[in-house]
Amino acid sequence: MNKKKLATTMMAGALAVVVTACGGQATNGGANGTGGNSEPVDVEPAKVVEDTSPVTIQYWHSHAEAQMEGLNYMLEEFSKKYPHITVEAVFQGGYDDLHKKLQAAVAAKDVPAVTNVEVSSLPTFGESGVFADLTPWILRDQTPLDDFSEGMINSYAFNGKQYGFPLIVSTSVFVYNKTLLDELNVQPPQTWSEIDAFNEAVTLKENGQTTRYAFSVPGWDAWYFDPWMINGGGQILTDDQSASAVETPESMRYIENFYKWKTDGHMHIGYGKGASNTMRQMFLDGEIAMVQHTSANIKMYRENADFEIGVSFIPGDVTRISNIGGAGIAMMEGASELEKEAAWKFIEFMTSAEHNIKWAEAVGYLPTRKSAIESEEGKQYFERWPQYRAVLEHFDDVTPRLQHIAYPEFRSHYIEVMGELALNNVDPATLMPQAAEKINEVLADYE
Amino acid sequence: MAGQRNSKAVGVIRLVLAAAVTLLILFPVYWMVVSSLKTQSEMRLAVPTLWPEGFAWENYAEAFRVIPYARYFGNTLIMSVGLIILQLNVALWAAYAFAKGRFWGKELLFLLILAALIVPDQVTFIPIYVMMSNLSWLDTFWALIVPNGASAFGIFLLRQAFKSLNNDVLEAARVDGAGRFALIYKMLLPMALPTVVTLVVLIFISSWNSYFWPLIMTNSSDMRVLTIGIAFLRDSIAGDEAMYFHIIMAASVMAILPIIIVYSLMQKHIVAAMANSTFK
Amino acid sequence: MRMSNKTNTKQAASVRTPASVRNWRTALEKWKDFLFAFPALALLAVFLYYPLGNSFYISFTNWNMTRPDKKFVGIDNYTYLLGHEDFYQSLKITFTYTIMDVVLTLVIGLLLALMFNVSSRLYAFMRGIIFMPYYISMVIAAMVFIWIYNGKYGLLNRVVSLFGLDPVEWLINSQTVLPALVVVSVWKGVGFAMILFIAGLRSIPSDYYEAAAIDGANRWMLFRYITLPLLSPMTLFLVITTFISSMQVFQSIDIMTNGGPLQSTNAIVYWIYTMAFSQFRTGRASALIMIFFVIILLLTALQWLISRKKVHYEG
């Protein structure tokens, strides 16, 4: 046992060195998602393992209470299929808490076998050598990666290594008050050019004070407004990923529009801890007609609104995309070989086409497998949940977020510009250049 | 005291003011209890009700369902009792040594102990986490108790109390051949009993309420304590926080109930002891 | 033999034993005394000074705790922090919070002590209630206050609207968020301050007041020249303990604001924590630990020194 541990540790060390050596050449997620799962030539398929001696693995997760029923169902099915593997699922708090615990566990070399990872942190963890490259197992079992939605599977690859699989996938969509919009006889905007007319028709004011906002875009997380930046023709970093591009005129188009719409009293921007609750309440109380929110909340909106809700893909301009969110499932590099084999079986099972629809429906996230969506079961699912159709129709426009190891750190700088706009109505044009400088400072720090 | 000259009218005004202040400070606790008995729709009324329309006891049932209360309660209790035993004894010995003992570098070493007061857990836990892992103590009560075995505040408090005690009695006992353990447990401890009681209560309060340490040092749901149960309850209904506040409040009431009961039973001793126990 | 003068009784008892044996015995006694301090010292050495020393070492590296390798970077982390406006901003936030917290806790605590220093069962009961928040977990206190501060359904905005004012998002407003956090801390801490001040008040001999009253002092003068000076040891104790705990503010920020909005509650300890864990910069976070440690140590020592001249100790 000890020898094994030592060997694993040494392997982890060696791998980290290799990974470090090729660090820096981050792939650009951006608009076209070239996260790339091109197979590296030097990876050998994993050995076939026939060992069925009992093994227990830990699965650290952030599945909220609402997802537990689905998870328990999956765990039960898994233990039927692999009776020798026991999976201990442990809730470790939200993604932030989970990521912190993962780091402590890695530092102590005492890790679970399988974990969730929030999609934008995958490059940082992958590059550090925390997650195992799944390629050897994929090669061995000939897992059909092309059955996954391309954007979704690429979101969990970095530098040519497949560090995880998409597990609970969401994207941001506009949820609108259909009853109200039907009454007003307007459609949710599909392009930026339709937004002004939409605003005029929907916004309600009393004595110059807005009593009903036409729409709301969350400002607390870049995940919601990065797509706007890209749809306006902008990008977060320059093409070679060496410097900030948030301050370029193309990248500023969306936020300057936001500034105008907000100043004119049409648009609401949520910001700060708890802003998500506030926005949702305002929508449910009829104070906002349309909110951009994660598709994972569609179920919650449908259950809690006392009006009919509709879902619309976010409007486009130069392009029309939305980013992938949610979390994936990954294997820890520090786990033992025996655990890794069990972990792989668990990862494959959790993301398999067989249970894909059931899982998606139980947790309220999107199906990830093309074959599952096209199956009879998939068709029935979309009948039960017509609200997800808007997403399905744009399946290929749901792209990975920017993949860069410094992204989780530097994004806070341009999020703050949005925060200043949301809270203090500060003109973004005055702040974005400083934010860009700070972003460049962070980037230089990572060199 | 100056107050002795107060007329009856002044006494009444003072009482009214005092009662008002007391109610104000009590209010958040009252609000927690009231909110824990409201339904979801009542929580979202534009004008909050000061008394629930009906008692929604099902909130407690729901909190019980999500949080394995008995298990977490037991864990919290074991951790607290363990910490009381360890911290109290370590502090008694050290306080004896620093108050009555003679050895080299005593003052300097005491300063090193006091310096511990200024270091928060958040800056020392990483190396300790690694250490606990190497000892295979992670996710056990050892990791929750042992690293916090020495309480600088406790040592300080007891040392002050011991210092104020008369040396002659101790010397007499020593001449009679009493060992140090006998001195500590049979003489110093009874003489400084009010301070010891205070210390026990303070350790109990801080360990019952501790959050950060157990959060970091435990990895399985079997080892969680009540505070983490509450925080996770909130996390696991993430995004729906405002919708489930009545349940969070119900769980909170359940978590503070034990400590309120302990306090109510011992209030007289605690307040009296607390008053005796700072430093001069 | 510095000790010999102080140990007369002992020497008297052992006057017949030869000097060498006596010395040996004294040494043994000292060792035995030391052994009683040892468990505490050992625990602190392992669980406090070793981690601090370790942080000191790491502060000169670029370590990211998920990696086995770390590079020595000299004082880069220190120069980065000391040359960065975020550091001064975070320091300013921490000090603003600390000053508000210390002043309000002590002033209100003292006022409450004057008001509640009445010997009756009713007042004892009320004191018990005022002390109650002290033993309520910060996790739970934070939850209740999040609900009270809620922009839409919160009770506070209801109260504010009774006065005809607009509702405020208390925790998402850079102007109100820090005071909102201080209120929670003061709510939890005033009861403790009150009880200590009452103990202080009761230890002041009443003949001081009587003598001064005979000399014609009014109530303000009694308070100013007798009560306040004689309470100063208690005040010093409370200033230092409250100062230390407010400088370490972490939990309420972690639960209520996450350092926001717009970094307006990014106090030092919270920043250290996020720097190490959200930004993978353990090396730089360790440097910040060291700087923070020195600052708080110096300020505590300074308070102690200044007050030594002003604090009145009896007897």
Automatic annotation (TrEMBL), chain A:
Signal peptide stretch: 1-21
InterPro entries xref list: SBP
Any one Gene Ontology BP term: maltose transport
SUPFAM superfamilies hit by this protein: Periplasmic binding protein-like II
Superkingdom to which the source organism belongs: Bacteria
GO cellular component, one term: ATP-binding cassette (ABC) transporter complex, substrate-binding subunit-containing
Keywords recorded for this protein, A-Z: Signal, Transport
Family: Belongs to the bacterial solute-binding protein 1 family.
Entry protein name: ABC transporter substrate-binding protein
Lineage: Bacteria, Bacillati, Bacillota, Bacilli, Bacillales
TrEMBL record, chain B:
Location(s), subcellular: Cell membrane
Protein's UniProt keywords contain ATP-binding: no
Main location: membrane
A Gene Ontology cellular-component term: plasma membrane
Protein name, entry field: Sugar ABC transporter permease
Domain ABC transmembrane type-1 stretches: 73-266
Segments passing through the bilayer: 12-33, 72-96, 108-129, 141-162, 183-205, 245-266
Xref: Pfam families: BPD_transp_1
Keyword Membrane: yes
Alphabetical keyword list: Cell membrane, Membrane, Transmembrane, Transmembrane helix, Transport
InterPro entries: MetI-like, MetI-like_sf
Bilayer topology term: Multi-pass membrane protein
Similarity comment: family membership: Belongs to the binding-protein-dependent transport system permease family.
Species of provenance: Paenibacillus montaniterrae
GO BP term, example: transmembrane transport
